[in-house]
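FAQ: What does a ligand-bound record look like?

Like this one, built around flavin-adenine dinucleotide:
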Amino acid sequence: MDLSLSDEQKQLQESAERFAREKYTFDNRRKIAATERGWLPENWAQFAELGWLGMAFSEEDGGYGGGPIETMIVMEQFGKGLVLEPFLPTVVLGGGMIARAGSAAQKEALLAPMIEGKKQFAFAWLERQSRYNLADVSLKATKEGNGWSLSGHKGVVYNAASADNIIVLARTAGSAREPKGLTLFVVDAKAKGLSRRDYPTQDSLRASELTFDKVSVVADAVLGKVDDAFPTVEEAVDRAIVALCAEATGCMDAINAATLDYIKTRKQFGVAIGKFQVLQHRMVDCFTNAQEARSMTLMASLKIDDKDPTVRAKAASGAKVQIGKSGKFCGQSAVQMHGGMGVTDELSVSHYFKRLTMIDLMFGNQQHHLTRYSNLAMAA
Amino acid sequence: MDLSLKPEHKAFADEVRAFARENLSPATREKTFSGKHYDRDDHMVWQKALGKKGWLAYTWPKKYGGPGWDVTQRFLFENVLAEEGAPRILPFGPKMVGPVIYTFGTEAQKERFLPGIRSSEVSWCQGYSEPGAGSDLANLRTRAVREGDHYIVNGQKTWTSFAHWGDWIFCLVRTNTDGKPQEGISFLLIDMKTPGVTVRPIIMTDGAHHVNDVFLDNVKVPVENLIGKENEGWTCAKFLLANERLGIAEVPSSKRGVSVLRKIARMEPQDGRTLADDPAFTAQIADIDLQVQALEMSELRVLSTMAQGGAPGPEVSSLKVRGSEIQQRIAELTMEAVGEYAQPYQPGMLFHDTNETPIGPDHAPPAAPRYFNMRKTSIYGGSTEIQKNIVSKMVLGL
Ligand SMILES: Cc1cc2nc3c(=O)[nH]c(=O)nc-3n(C[C@H](O)[C@H](O)[C@H](O)COP(=O)(O)OP(=O)(O)OC[C@H]3O[C@@H](n4cnc5c(N)ncnc54)[C@H](O)[C@@H]3O)c2cc1C
Ligand SMILES: Cc1cc2nc3c(=O)[nH]c(=O)nc-3n(C[C@H](O)[C@H](O)[C@H](O)COP(=O)(O)OP(=O)(O)OC[C@H]3O[C@@H](n4cnc5c(N)ncnc54)[C@H](O)[C@@H]3O)c2cc1C
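The answer part, i.e. the structure of the complex:
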């Protein structure tokens, strides 16, 4: 057993740490969040140059042969800086699904330019009724000549406004909530019949509601097998969950560090408030929570490549439960220990708190993943 | 012992309900149930209606223009108004400074200030906290120096809720720097229109503007605006804080919050059914429901002591602690009920009446901002840690 990073991984960690520290000061982040796009093309170009966009992909796919640990390393630093560039929708979700299910032609047309920084993706799976059930899909794709026609609605699609292609989960057969009968389509973001309503999210990211009104796609737009997308989606989402967990550990480190610093310097009753034992113990619990989050994230990152889908799913859900719990504890505690300052927009603390809260809501909250884990564990 | 209501109390509740239905604007009511922010008029129009009826200063004795209600009437009044979707009465005039004025003020001060508070024609804000004086209130630095028949006030107040709506601010100011910090504080009323008073907004996590910095720069305040004796303002300050804490558990609005939460759970889809069919989720609602009941019963026990002529003791601090936890938990569960659709941020739908359509269901846009915003309840009015220190010292003798 060896839980230490390799030299290359350490270098990656250092460069990601430097990026977050230099490019994502809190002031810079505010400015980037206020731009129309919500992220900076020059940063994206830098990701490509540094090899981050291809690091987790195999060499056959044009990547650099890394894996979940590399993703974990980068995402953690993104969490520290509250980085806004759409790495998760483009690289982890979009890239991940294309690498797993795409044909050689699709990889060449989509994955290669993505790794070069020239293409971005969005993943459209959620619908109003879905909640966290990935199979609760009713957007319909029907055969139309050689191709397909898509009609329906997708919600809270991250990065849809910047994406070149939207990867859409559609129902091609079966009844509502049946995992069988789902198909993934790669749709041009400018396709006729596809309309968008864009908006910012609570944590300053960008998402959209999408309406598909008889959007025509060619047969080659199918990613993977017709009617059989569910395993691909489930795996990609589990990977995204683990990446999100890594981001959350970065957020927790940052928010804990800010709080520790604050309680050492803020004086009330003639002493630093960190002298009060109740705050000391709360700070210790924050530290412990962040440690647990880091441990579960590492475990999940190490297990996410497992051939057995149950092992993979349990690891992802288990980590998500921990991140939900720890994130809430660290976030709420940080706000509380900052007193009135903690509930202002002016301090970074409230922004980390918002991001941690939204991470809990993405792809299933703590309660959802506790149930999923519990069911998987009971079935074993 | 008896929990049931006498017929005259039932009739009273009906009267309050009828009044609310007649006087509450439907738009204001809608904001309450959807969790959107009120604007100034939502509060003022409603409070003026209450004032006209003689019900705004409902905790005041008859002698000072209050309705002279018993504790059961007060309890019913608060509950019925919460059920009907009334905004909470802004406490600064009727619940905070009013009682200080009729308890510690001169006859002239009572005559001058109480009518405007009772009618809500004059709105007030609370200038206690300062950048260096939050939990440690006695550390305040704002100076008032007497020059003839005026005080010259210099300093900064912060976290001043609704200062941007306020006509007057009641301030704790330092009039003496010798001796114990509590002993040189005075209680001063300042007209916000006086030259030298500047209000600067503080924007909160959810994007809202409720609180402010208030800068006082050579503000000239007539000596007749001093309440009580110079350097003895701490007595007024503590009296006011005890009143503030009693009203802050917010049981009626939490009861409403639980019923709104159940309604949302019945509307939120999950696996082809609704969230109301998910026992793991509904058990969490039941849990918070029972906590609300325990808190309400504890409050009724305090009220019952008061009805027998007793004064509420420092144990009310534990009601404030629990009350804020409950409000926070309800907001948290409401956001979780909304799920993924809590993610879009639609400030337009929180603060203004717009024609914008919500992204997701109607109840979605305020859910997350409200959760973020409710973190304040365990901070303002004396933080949870401070309240627990009070209980451990004053009740448990630690
Ligand atoms: C089952 C059992 C087996 C044990 N086996 C051994 C053994 O094999 N050998 C041996 O030497 N000892 C043994 N111990 C003793 C054990 O180490 C002591 O019980 C322990 O150190 C606590 O001391 P105490 O019981 O005197 O409690 P106290 O020290 O009196 O503490 C009482 C309470 O006050 C709290 N407290 C104390 N100081 C602080 C502080 N500064 N801040 C906040 N809270 C504080 C404590 O956390 C505790 O909750 C054993 C104890 C138990 C219960
Ligand atoms: C939304 C909002 C509205 C407000 N409205 C008003 C208003 O209208 N007028 C007004 O005057 N004030 C108002 N306040 C101020 C409020 O009363 C203070 O924020 C509060 O007293 C806490 O002070 P602080 O923010 O300076 O935190 P601090 O006192 O700096 O506290 C920071 C942390 O340290 C903890 N702490 C401090 N001392 C101790 C101790 N001895 N033991 C253990 N823990 C301790 C606190 O509990 C908190 O967790 C408002 C605050 C908010 C957030």
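Follow-up question: can I read anything off the structure? Yes, for example: The longest strand of chain A covers residues 147-158.
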